[in-house]
């Protein structure tokens, strides 16, 4: 009797799991398929030939991966350097027009990004920034800024006033209090926002497509050209390389972002 | 003084977002000699169907995401079995941070004629001849739902979890069934979060280039495809910008509905 009551639930959950994991399973299958032609339902030959090809040190994929990580690191650095002061001011200082400024940071989320990127690419072209690492870093930093400011502001806002006040009462200057009390307490949230910016840059496609290609070939661009060239195996392996950091971040983000910080995003 | 701290980031948003957006509007309306609507005529003439398809795809995907996230959030809040709730909560988040282009590539294999989806269906007893490729507008919708559902569910289920349990229990004590409680008690209180989650998803999907590129670029497709085509192959910024303005107007319409609803709620 109880087994029958469980059946619909289990069936629905299995279906849902198939929907969530099916595409990723297919990706894994493609990465080890040495030949897979219609009408075969499964690959007819398995092997790691394409993995070797992708991970060859002088291969294009390794070069793209290195470049992508380099760009993401620079973009995160640039982004956090301007986002942290802004987030602190938005969360803890008496800022005139605070609501309006927060809204300005939300604006890029309110419009589709394509028209913005094509015009940035056009301006960059006239400035000689198209096809340069600097150009791609700048767009990625601006793109990540929106998230960084909102998340970091929420992290600063979640720091208790009493802790800061206590430090100030004991004679710490504003800067010392920030460095020794506010910043360490907000650090997990800020770390989460920095990782998020890093990931967004690593995964970014549209802006890199217009600003970077064909000279700056990040991993997503390589994935696209492999897929467009019909090389499903290399595309699948590249996609898996991009997949790993996203899943790791998903798994650890809850540890970094406490519920009270999340609840404060956008307040 | 605090304003100085915000200034650099405002400058970045201005330079890399507002300025290019204004350029896009200017480019859409400027002809060789003065303001013109010619670019919009071209855009309408060539890409009317693409605009409809864009609305159809994003609209379908948004509706499915809404239904799915409400169902998952509802079960997580009201579901009877603790174990099923835990499994569901663990399951739904996986695609949250997976990039669109990776989602596109995964789905290209999964939804194809000999992809795992058809293999599973055939294995479950579907006749072989029914196996068809979903790599068209339906594939784009499925990919969008797969990728955006966790985000919408996170926001909606979070709002549901933060609700006052007493009301739910009161309704249940009065004999209301779970569906009744979901529709009558829970949904009205999280309606604002639902709109926010769905509008953010809608806007995001409108601007995605990689998924239609990977799944199906055949015409008519989503507006991002002709926009990229106009620029990369023809160097025609005017029509691309007109298409961009039209895409912004479409999302503007949606945002307007949202603001109107928010205003109506405030008036209550």
TrEMBL record, chain A:
Gene3D superfamilies on file:
MetI-like (1.10.3720.10)
Q: Which residues form the ABC transmembrane type-1 domain?
A: 65-253
By its UniProt entry, which InterPro entries does this protein fall under? Answer: MetI-like, MetI-like_sf
Give the chief site where it resides.
Answer: membrane
Q: List the keywords (alphabetical).
A: Cell inner membrane, Cell membrane, Membrane, Transmembrane, Transmembrane helix, Transport
| Keyword Transmembrane helix belongs to the record | yes
A Pfam family (short name) is: BPD_transp_1
Record carries keyword Hydrolase: no
Its subcellular locations are:
Cell inner membrane; Cell membrane
Membrane topology designation: Multi-pass membrane protein
**Transmembrane intervals:** 12-33, 67-88, 100-120, 132-159, 180-199, 232-253
The family note in this entry says: Belongs to the binding-protein-dependent transport system permease family.
Protein name listed in UniProt: ABC transporter permease subunit
- Record organism: Teichococcus aerophilus
């Amino acid at each position: 009797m109880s087994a029958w009551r469980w059946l619909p639930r289990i069936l629905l959950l299995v279906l849902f799991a198939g929907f969530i994991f099916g595409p990723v399973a297919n990706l894994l299958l493609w990465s080890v398929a040495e030949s897979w032609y219609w009408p075969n339902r499964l690959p007819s030959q398995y092997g790691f030939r394409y993995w070797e090809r992708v991970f060859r040190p002088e291969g294009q994929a390794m070069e793209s991966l290195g470049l992508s990580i380099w760009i993401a690191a620079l973009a995160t650095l640039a982004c956090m350097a301007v986002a942290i002061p802004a987030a602190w001011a938005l969360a803890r200082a008496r800022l005139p027009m605070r609501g309006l400024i927060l809204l300005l940071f939300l604006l890029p989320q309110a419009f589709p990004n394509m028209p913005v990127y094509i015009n940035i690419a056009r301006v960059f072209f006239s400035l000689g920034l198209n096809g340069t690492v600097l150009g791609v870093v700048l767009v990625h930093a601006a793109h990540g800024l929106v998230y960084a400011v909102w998340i970091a502001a929420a992290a600063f806002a979640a720091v208790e006033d009493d802790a800061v006040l206590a430090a100030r009462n004991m004679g710490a200057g504003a800067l010392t209090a920030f460095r020794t009390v506010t910043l360490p307490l907000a650090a997990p949230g800020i770390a989460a926002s920095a990782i998020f910016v890093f990931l967004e840059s690593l995964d970014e496609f549209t802006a890199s497509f217009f600003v970077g290609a064909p000279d700056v070939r990040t991993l997503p661009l390589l994935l696209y050209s492999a897929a467009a060239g019909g090389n499903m195996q290399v595309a699948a392996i590249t996609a898996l390389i991009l997949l790993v950091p996203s899943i790791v971040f998903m798994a650890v983000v809850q540890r970094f972002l406490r519920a009270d910080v999340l609840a404060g995003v956008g307040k | 003084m605090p304003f100085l701290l915000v200034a650099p980031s405002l400058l970045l948003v201005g330079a890399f977002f507002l300025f290019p957006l204004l350029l896009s509007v200017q480019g859409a309306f400027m002809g060789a000699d003065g303001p013109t609507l010619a670019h919009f005529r071209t855009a309408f003439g060539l890409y009317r169907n693409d605009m409809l398809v864009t609305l159809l795809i994003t609209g379908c995907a948004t509706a499915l995401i809404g239904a799915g996230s409400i169902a998952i959030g509802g079960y997580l809040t009201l579901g009877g079995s603790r174990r099923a709730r835990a499994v569901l909560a663990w399951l739904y988040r996986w695609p949250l941070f997976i990039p669109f282009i990776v989602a596109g590539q995964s789905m290209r294999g999964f939804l194809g004629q000999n992809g795992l989806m058809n293999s599973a269906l055939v294995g479950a007893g579907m006749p072989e001849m029914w196996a068809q490729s979903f790599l068209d507008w339906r594939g784009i919708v499925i990919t969008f739902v797969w990728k955006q559902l966790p985000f919408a569910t996170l926001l909606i289920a979070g709002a549901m979890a933060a609700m006052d349990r007493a009301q739910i229990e009161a309704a249940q004590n009065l004999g209301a069934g779970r569906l009744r409680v979901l529709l009558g008690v829970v949904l009205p209180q999280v309606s604002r979060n639902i709109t926010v989650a769905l509008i953010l998803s809608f806007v995001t999907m409108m601007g995605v280039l990689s998924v239609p590129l990977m799944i199906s670029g055949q015409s008519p497709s989503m507006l991002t495809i002709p926009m990229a085509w106009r620029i990369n192959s023809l160097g025609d910024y005017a029509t691309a910008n007109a298409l961009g303005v039209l895409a912004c107007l479409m999302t503007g319409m949606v945002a307007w509905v949202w603001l109107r609803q928010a205003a109506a709620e405030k008036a209550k």
